[in-house]
Design goal:
mainly alpha; 7 helices; 91% helix
């Protein structure tokens, strides 16, 4: 391929890479803010719960990899068919995610001590709140990461992620001072909810 074509493709993909970097920076910043506001013990509980959350999140990763090419094809050729597929996936995925999240939250008091040890009992409630984030993240991935990109609205999606982060991080600091590590999870809820809201309204 010609250099011009390569540069054009890289430029088109830049907003998507930026949004992915922003999501990673947001997660890392939560840990740093929590450490300053609530101390090392809170960071340990939050990090342990976050690692288990990421493992649960990975269950649904293959789904997004499978549906994105189909989304992209439909929205380039038949918007109505793309919207129908989006609704079908949302109606199928959201109850499934809620079921998985509910099972994880209910079983957390027994499973987490086995996985993490009795010293991480404080991570149980943190992880149970993260189960709500799991549901919201699934919706945000579909409406934001899948739909917006399929519609070539990568820049809009990136702006949504940045705005959500700029709101959620200061909120995290205040909530960490108030309720400790749970505040970081509430900031995650705000972050995902804002991405959904901005993408839907926009």
């Amino acid at each position: 391929p010609e250099l011009g074509a390569i540069y054009s493709d890289m430029r088109a993909a830049a907003p998507l890479f930026l949004s992915m970097a922003a999501v990673g920076l947001f997660a890392n910043s939560l840990t740093v803010i929590l450490g300053y506001a609530s101390g090392v013990a809170a960071v340990g509980a939050f990090t342990a719960a976050l690692n288990l959350y990421k493992a649960a999140q990975g269950i649904f990763a293959p789904l997004y990899q499978i549906i994105f090419p189909r989304f992209s094809h439909l929205f380039h050729h038949d918007d109505a068919a793309g919207i129908r597929m989006l609704k079908q996936v949302l109606l199928g995925q959201t109850p499934l995610t809620m079921l998985v999240a509910g099972c994880l939250a209910i079983s957390a008091p027994w499973v987490l001590p086995l996985l993490l040890g009795s010293n991480f009992d404080s991570a149980i409630l943190v992880f149970q709140w993260m189960c709500l984030v799991l549901v919201l993240n699934g919706i945000a991935n579909l409406i934001g990461g899948q739909l917006m990109v399929a519609l070539n609205h990568q820049l809009f999606y990136t702006k949504a992620v940045l705005v959500a982060g700029l709101v959620a991080l200061p909120a995290a600091w205040l909530m960490n001072l108030w309720v400790g590590d749970i505040g970081s999870v509430w900031a995650m809820v705000i972050f995902e909810a804002l991405i959904i809201g901005i993408c839907v309204i926009g």
